[in-house]
């Protein structure tokens, strides 16, 4: 495709997030957190899905549906293994109606083995988890259109179930699929309206440091482009900035980050490669610098990858807020 044929870049959107854990003030302050995100100009507010110290995302979305007015609400992302798709479709459709058509339904294969083990929920092999998610996506696509579903899969069987209530959004609420590995990205390219690109993880659920570089991210986007074919231009690409550090010395902050990694922090990252200061500063997943420098970095990420939907990690919402007016409408 020549640059003359390329579509105009998508406008930026910004997603805040919250878990309702103790660091955020607990479950009782959770609604206020989403209302604050709405005030700060975020486009959406997303809730992760873990069995640990956080609110239950489905119940929390029901509360946000009536406690907020404009901000879109959703999940980033549900673990498919925690819920049957027929039940999830019912909950999702209900939330879309209650919110006036503001739901973005994010779902993934589930990756934190420890949580499945603690909850006594079977943690299948990666191949089986992805195959189950593929079946769930097909079922959700039908039921969330308010249509009758007849599905005979290896893992799920649906017999003449009609989706209800009819969602407010047509033809159905957007489905977000999150993932980092090639199989997950190919599956997302087939079914998702929005794809959330995460760095790949190892078998224990630790994120691979090699996956946070610009080069690795661009390669993931290319995999999606190849798998999506003609659908690619209709897919919105999302990523989540995990660390925002306003500073007037980007290089010094990057060196501190590298030193922390050498000392085993954060513990949920597997240091499978040595990165340079430049690779840290160019990573889409880290934002160091003045607000203007961070805004320029995000513009650069979009120019190199077409990713335009910026997610912000829970607890980082206020730190990033001054960047939003610098990019809003672009």
Structural features, described:
- The protein is an alpha/beta fold.
- Helices cover 39% and strands 19% of the residues.
- Strand 2, helix 2 and strand 3 form a beta-alpha-beta unit.
- The mean pLDDT is 95.
What would the keywords be for this entry?
single chain, 330 residues, alpha/beta, 8-stranded parallel beta barrel, 15 strands, globular
Sum this structure up briefly.
It is built from twelve helices and 15 strands. With 330 residues, the protein is of the alpha/beta class. Helix 3 (85-98) crosses helix 5 (126-143) and helix 6 (182-191) packs across helix 7.
Indicate the radius of gyration in whole angstroms. Answer: 19 Å
**Biggest sheet record:** 8 strands, parallel, barrel
Low-pLDDT parts are: none
For the terminal residues, how far apart are their CA atoms? Answer: 23 Å
What structural class do the secondary elements suggest?
A: alpha/beta
**Run of helices and strands:** EHEHEEHEHHEEEHEEHEEHEHEHEHH
Shape: globular
Mean of residue pLDDT values: 95
> DSSP helix count?
12
Strand content: 15-25%
Q: Could you give the order of strands across the largest sheet? A: 1-2-3-5-8-9-11-15
